[in-house]
Amino acid sequence: MTASPAQIQAEKGWQPLPLPWQRPLAWLLLLPIRAYRRWLTRWLPPACRFHPSCAHYAVLAVAQHRPPVAVGLIGWRLLRCQPLCRGGIDWPRPGPYAHLVQRPLPLWPAPSETDRP
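-> structure tokens emitted (117 positions)
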């Protein structure tokens, strides 16, 4: 029995994202996040204190929540992404569209989880 493309993508951690005609504001919020992930992250050193990364958190927040709530969650996460914060595992809370997004389990602990005394 062969796996369907959706099953293969789910195993690789792919997340179904809102399409332009389903949720246009969410789709517009994802454009700068996708641009950042595609063009800027390759030039920056890996320095995220959280798992999932802030960009992945933003994508999940936009996919699971309405735009005003998603912007608030992303802003709060970015405020905590600084040297005085401990970091760790931090997923966005489930929202009204959470049934559309399957959260993958991490394959390894976050670096801040293994460095604790």
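The longest helix spans residues 24-40.
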